[in-house]
Amino acid sequence: MDRRVTIYxxxxxxxxxxxxxxxxxxxxxxxxxxxxxxxxxxNRMAGKAxxxxxxxxxxxxxxxxxxxxxxxxxxxFCVVGVDEIGRRxxxxxxxxxx
Length: 98
Known about the structure:
By secondary structure, the protein is mostly beta strands. The model has no long low-confidence stretch (mean pLDDT 87).
């Protein structure tokens, strides 16, 4: 794991006037390994082949879902799939650029 990624969760931010607007709150900054998707994995994802870009492998966390976004090297990604690796050893996050 050679990259730092920041995991974000959707939230709501309230302005001083009381107006609520959507925001992304940082839940963790973790080490990850970035892997390119193989052709088999892209084909398996059927209609999402053009959107899926990479897979990030991070240590297991119970709070990461497809509702999250991650950022790596200044680029934001939407999590489109979460696969558990082993017995809660790690997570494979299938992502696409936002």
